[in-house]
Amino acid sequence: MSYMNVFTVPTYYKDFLCKGHECRHSCCCGWNVSISMKEYFNLLSFNCSKKMRRILDKTFYIVNNPTQDYYAMIAKDINNDCSLHMENGFCMLQYEYGENILPAICRYYP
């Protein structure tokens, strides 16, 4: 069985650039963001620095009754934010390793 992903995006999407700390609505601050099983294990097996590994290991947790598409969630920090957000508002994972390592929900935001 094959699947086709269909995304509804704003007209400005193709020109969108992350504003970092100037953004009024940081990507996942306060949101319940989930990732697929495949994305979770890609991040788990990703070859990165020891510092990034420690951060990644605490950033995601496996949900109760996981499925292939709804497998793990971002574990929010004390500020109700993703621990990968740097003080300047940018994602540490993307900053250090590029956009291709990001889960789909992070790549396709907004």
Compact summary:
This protein has helices spanning 37-45, 50-59, 92-97, 104-108; strands at residues 34-35, 60-62, 72-74. By secondary structure, the protein is an alpha+beta fold.
Task: Write up this protein.
The chain has helices spanning 37-45, 50-59, 92-97, 104-108; strands at 34-35, 60-62, 72-74. It is α+β, with helices and mostly antiparallel strands. It has one domain. Strands 1-3-2 form a three-stranded antiparallel β-sheet. The chain is globular and about 35 Å long. The N and C termini lie far apart (29 Å).
Q: Could you say which overall geometry the principal axes of the C-alpha atoms support?
A: globular
* Percent of sequence in beta strands: 5-15%
Structural class: alpha+beta
Question: Count of DSSP E strands?
Answer: 3
Distance between the first and last residues' Cα: 29 Å
| Largest sheet, spatial ordering of strands | 1-3-2
Count of structural domains = 1
SSE string, helix = H, strand = E?
Answer: EHHEEHH
Q: Radius of gyration, Cα only, in angstroms? A: 14 Å
Q: Low-confidence parts lasting 5 or more residues at pLDDT below 50?
A: none
- Estimate the helix proportion, in percent: 25-40%
Average pLDDT, to the nearest integer?
83
Major sheet size, sense and barrel closure:
3 strands, antiparallel
> How many DSSP H or I helices?
4
